[in-house]
Write a structure and sequence with these properties.
Rossmann fold; CmoA; SAM-dependent_MTases_sf; Methyltransf_25; transferase; binds S-adenosylmethionine; 8 helices; two-stranded antiparallel sheet; methyltransferase; 25% strand
């Protein structure tokens, strides 16, 4: 059975997907569902000032319709030769990103429709995964962070924003109430849409705790890590190689 999860998106129990028609409604949906969505992009653009130089390669892994990739290119437009590459597994997302690219006319942004695990990554100075790693199966998540670490140049930066779990059951309960119910009701979603979305994400979006994410980064080799944003259960980590 398919349920309406808001913003004209339908998904079944444990069946959330970014494929098909979701790409058409994605920009509206993500900016309403993810707290501080645009502010997080702004922080990442600010961070890029420190790491992106002329001739840098920049990746956005899980770029969806390319919103952040375009913002990064705009922020760094004075740096001739820098290239911005968005990777997403869903061809419909990449098609939408390509359509925007044609409208904006930005030659140094490109998109690849591929699984992050299959995509060959060139040596890069700045790699971003903005609410993407949470959708990677926990069993292979470490292998992805290892791959990102290997692709970064020395001194390069990995920015990872994730939905995170609380450190114990009491905090997790508070976070769920404050985000899943209060925040989403405040964004105009109704109770049925909220429940349908939560049910659709079972087994698809699997958040780690803050400590679980720090452990992933540490095992990959990152020693210099800090949090740049935290709002309820949404956290942005910055890791420098
Ligand atoms: C929450 S969205 C990312 C939002 C986007 N970064 C932004 O700023 O608007 C997660 C994206 O990750 C993509 N994704 C999930 N698993 C992937 C994988 N293994 N390889 C590439 N992309 C993946 C999904 O298709 C989806 O578009």
């Amino acid at each position: 059975m398919k349920d309406v999860t808001g913003d004209s998106i339908v998904a079944s129990n444990a069946g959330w997907t970014f494929s098909g028609e979701v790409a058409q409604h994605f920009d509206d949906h993500v900016s309403k569902s993810v707290p501080l969505y645009a502010a997080g992009h702004e922080l990442i653009c600010g961070l890029s000032d420190f790491f992106v130089g002329r001739d840098s390669v920049v990746y956005e892994l899980g770029c969806s319709t390319g919103t952040l990739s375009f913002r990064l290119a705009e922020r760094n437009k004075g740096k001739d030769g820098a290239r911005f590459i968005g990777v997403d597994i869903e061809p419909e997302m990449v098609a939408r990103a390509e359509q925007k690219r044609a409208e904006l006319g930005v030659p140094n942004v490109s998109f690849v429709a591929d699984d992050i695990f299959q995509a060959e990554l060139e040596p890069a100075d700045f790699i971003v995964a903005y609410y993407t790693v949470q959708f990677v199966r926990p069993a292979v998540r470490q292998a992805l962070i290892d791959k990102i670490y290997a692709a970064l140049n020395w001194g390069g930066c990995f920015v990872m924003f994730e939905k995170v779990r609380g450190p114990d059951a009491r905090f997790q309960d508070m976070l769920t109430q404050m985000y899943t119910y209060d925040y989403k009701l405040g964004q105009g979603y109704n109770a049925e849409e909220i429940v349908s979305k939560a049910r659709s994400l079972k087994g698809v979006l699997e958040p780690f705790s803050t400590q679980g994410n720090l452990d992933l980064l540490s095992r990959a080799g990152f020693q210099d890590v800090t949090t740049i944003m935290k709002y309820i259960c949404f956290e942005g980590f910055v890791a420098i190689k």
